[in-house]
Amino acid sequence: MIRLLLAVALAIPLGLDLYMPVPEENPLIAEKVDLGRRLFNDRRLSRDGSIACVSCHDPDRAFSDGRAIAAGVFGRAGRRNAPAIVNRGYGRAFFWDGRAHTLEEQVLEPIQDPNEMDLPVAEAASRVGLTPEDVSRALASYVRSILSGDSAYDRFVNGDRTALSAERQTGLQIFRGKGNCTACHVGPNFSDERIHNTGVAWRDPSTGSGQVAGYYADEGAGNGTFKTPTLREVARTAPYMHDGSISTLEEVVGFYDAGGRSNPHIDPEIHPLQLSVEEKQAIVAFLKSLSCSIREGHP
Amino acid sequence: MTRGMRVTAALMLGALLVVPARPTAQAKADVALRAAMETETVKGDLKGAIEQYKKIVASAGTNRTLAAQALVRMAECYQKLGDAQARAIYERVVREFGDQRDAVEQARARLAGTAASRGLALRKVWSDPNVDSFFGGISPDGRYLTYAGRFNTAVILRDLVTGEERPLTSGDSSGTFASAISKDGNEAAYDWYVGKSSELWVASLRSGNPPPSRRILANEELSGITPHDWSPDGKRIAVSVRRQDGAAQIGLVGVADGSFHVLKSVDWRGPTRMFFSPDGLDIAFDLPANDSTEDRDVFVLGADGSREIAAATNPGDDAVIGWAPDGRHLLFASDRNGTMGLWALAFVDHKPQGAPALVKADIGNVFPLGITRSGALYTTIAMWDQEIEIAAVDLGTGKQTAAPVKPIQRFAGANTQPAWSSDGKWLAYRSARGRSLATGVAGGAGATSVLGIRSTDTGDIRELRPALSYFQGLTWAPDGGSLVAAGGDLKGRDGVFRIDARTGHVTPLFLRIPGEDRLGGYEGLFVSPDGKRLYYRTQNGTVHERDLSSESERVVVSGKPSAIGFTHPNGRLEAISVSPDGRWIAATRTEAFQGFEITSASVVVMPVDGGESRTLLRVDQPMQIMNSMPWTPDGRAILVLKMGSFSKGGLVDGGTNELWYVPVDGGTPRKLDIDVSRVLPGGLGRIRLHPDGRQLAFVSGHYPVQEVWVLENFLPVSSAKR
């Protein structure tokens, strides 16, 4: 039976969809969420037993890690910034380049990645007395339980017109209008789950000289494109972008106000915004309204 | 009840009155059978009729003819309900009543399952040229229809039997688009647009002194809310909403407390329709298959959000139609076999079973209103007859020199917005396709607009499909490489867009910021002759000049917002037209109005760079907006189409259209002897003068005429197990 497989395990916070896509072969049940939670914190899943999923996805940092680039076993540096894994149960593409299509597929990759946990999945599963499928399903179930909603923004858009200050309301208007942020950061999770080129990965040594062609420091999903991250909890998940190259929300807003970084494949939605100082401040103020107390695990 | 059914009922009742005073057993049986048939056909109470037929069969005794007849009728009732027992009963008749030749033939024919043998019937219930859209609901007995009245100003309840109507709402502001009737037939939910957001209201359908309508959901964050269907228990309403960020969602509104629960966020384009399953546990809806198409797939979502199933997916277009009354079949429209047909997909335990079966071919682009308790499907469709015509004219003599021709033969009836390129070699136009044909609404879920470009030299037409949900105000950029139109992108954002004339590629020139004054009407866009500036008008009559390089703007003329809806405040500009040299703007200006009708107006001309306007023409008679005013190529005059007062069905009160030549140097305007009587009234009636000054393109015809149809006896004999 697939009925009620979600309802028995989760209480959906205000602002998120009641329907969360869950594979029929991996129904969301409390025991599995509990198991996934334990595995998420289990350092045996890394080669040297030094790190667990939680090492890079810290609940106190809205399931991010505060570093520009994730750190793996033996002090190895990862490739990209550890994303905040909130509301991923609603996701349609996973990792910064969107290469994984299901959470069950996604959760196993960091375990095997030499720069992250560096352990074959079979060995990791063996260490905890499970099959790889069990590990995958349990971790995916737990990640589905990590939910961010019921923020000041959610209360505002659901009728409590006092939930946002005047400045934050102004920021919301700019976010939807002049800022064109909702071209990509749309819907309850503030992500269209699609890939875009904003120019963050573009490097152009020829700037000013016109001698050397530019290149992408990271191709992402191709031509410097990366998946739109959620903005839920964004005030708690600095630094920003796939490479953690931008430290503050103010700088992020400034980056987009300037039209991103021009490059041959920049998304047509990215263009100079001509925001005033006050407008940029208002957007930042609004973004801070997207934080709340994150729910994880089953109620 | 239709007139025919009432006649049948009267005859039946008459028959009852003339039975003999001492009825025989045969006569008693006949009376019982007729009574059951009346319950079935007149009252539409299939379940009640089934019980009566059962009693007749049980008491038939040796009267095998009566038993066989009752069994066949009973099976037909089950069949209308989509109940699997129909098949079993037909088989019983064939098996046990071999001596009842007529009954056995009927049963065999039903089992053979051909449309003709099942008595499938399609009939038109109503049509009205003055209705904007029948995006409404049908009552469970099929007798009542709710729809949005003229100019969407009121929700109307229509008795489809008597033709009587009464408004369910009051007030004179624009406000409603969609409605849905509860499963008990006692209430209707409807949307009510209140400026920048929409509310959900419920009205009683009781006659006499019904309680006032009540608002059950108001949220400024919802720019649009569409009620689709009521849950069987009447406690929830399935809705689709559009949020201020443009995102579309589907959800449920609690009737008692107005609570709104989002079931699923569905990108920018929402469903065309949503229907509760008869048990209330599932909701069927359709969504676009992907970003680049308006072709849709059908899904079934648990009403508690616990599960979702892709019910109908294929490379073609699938759109939800509804559920069989017993919930054992999901019905949808699909063009999977080449033309749009009605298909049925069996459902057992909330899951589809097997492949869908074609129920009826060639149903067209219908829009479902609902399926009644007896299994009759009510649909609406808009009939289009809008054509582009070109008349040969001589402005010197003021005469028409040849009868108009219709240059566009493709998709006849749905072509509008002619626009000549500046070199006169191309005629662009908009052609409506898909579900916009069904609803008569240019935009919205499932609508499709095609950009046609016809060569004036060869007559060849190329069609482009701009990635826009709708577009209007089509006009060429001076270089002929692109067109400019107001419209909506596939992310639900309104704006002005450039459309590449060769590829159809769309580039936004600017997007309307939510909450700002909306772009206005069909005739509000012009590109300056040097291609550097765009002039556009917003709904409150403000004329803007936008520098297309710097994106800076200035207000040429300030507007005046309406106090309510579609009214025209005095002094507001209603249409603009830029001179060939780009130095002047001609406009119509409202002087006085009454209701929705302008009673006095003037045509003025003003310098683009600012300065006083001059009045060129005054009209002091009931008329509609003079909203189409092309300049002559030499820039010495404008052609003004004075439209007679009209209803959507055409000109009324003996009104007539007139075309006037109005010199801009203050000369005396003169009426041209050019037949513009067929020009479509109102905003769509665009006229465009060819750069050679000798060909006048215009749109003839009427607004789409909305029709309501009912399809009966179409449900398949279910093979599903109970």
Integer count of domains of chain B: 4
- The percent range for helix content of chain A is 25-40%
* Rg of Cα set of chain B: 29 Å
Class from helix and strand fractions of chain B: mainly beta
What is Rg of chain A? 20 Å
**Uncertain spans of chain A:** 1-5
Q: In CATH, what is the class of the largest domain in chain B?
A: Mainly Beta
Describe, in plain words, how this protein is organized in 3D.
The complex is a heterodimer of chains A (299) and B (722). Chain A has helices at 30-40, 53-56, 103-106, 109-112, 121-127, 132-144, 152-157, 166-176, 249-257, 277-287; strands at 195-196, 202-203, 215-216, 226-227. Chain A has 299 residues and is mainly α. Chain A has 2 domains: 30-144, Cytochrome c-like domain (Cytochrome Bc1 Complex, Chain D, domain 2), CATH 1.10.760; 152-290, Cytochrome Bc1 Complex, Chain D, domain 2 (Orthogonal Bundle), CATH 1.10.760. A two-stranded antiparallel ribbon of chain A has the order 1-4. In chain A, strands 2-3 form a two-stranded antiparallel sheet. The longest helix of chain A is centred in the middle third of the chain and has 13 residues, at 132-144. In chain B, strands 1-49-23-22 form a 4-stranded antiparallel sheet. Chain B has a 4-stranded antiparallel sheet with strand order 2-3-4-5, with no helix packed on it. Chain B has a 4-stranded antiparallel sheet with strand order 6-7-8-9, with no helix packed on it. Chain B has 4 domains: 3-118, Serine Threonine Protein Phosphatase 5, Tetratricopeptide repeat; 128-270, YVTN repeat-like/Quinoprotein amine dehydrogenase (Methylamine Dehydrogenase, Chain H, 7 Propeller); 273-381, Neuraminidase (6 Propeller), CATH 2.120.10.30; 387-706, TolB, C-terminal domain (Neuraminidase), CATH 2.120.10.30. With 722 residues, chain B is mainly beta. The longest helix of chain B is centred in the N-terminal third of the chain and has 17 residues, at 25-41. The radius of gyration of chain B is 29 Å and the shape is elongated. Chain B is built from 8 helices and 49 strands. In chain B, a hairpin with a 5-residue loop joins strand 6 (179-181) and strand 7. The model of chain B is unreliable at 1-23 and 439-446 (pLDDT under 50). The relative contact order of chain B is 0.10. Classes of the chains: A mainly alpha (299), B mainly beta (722).
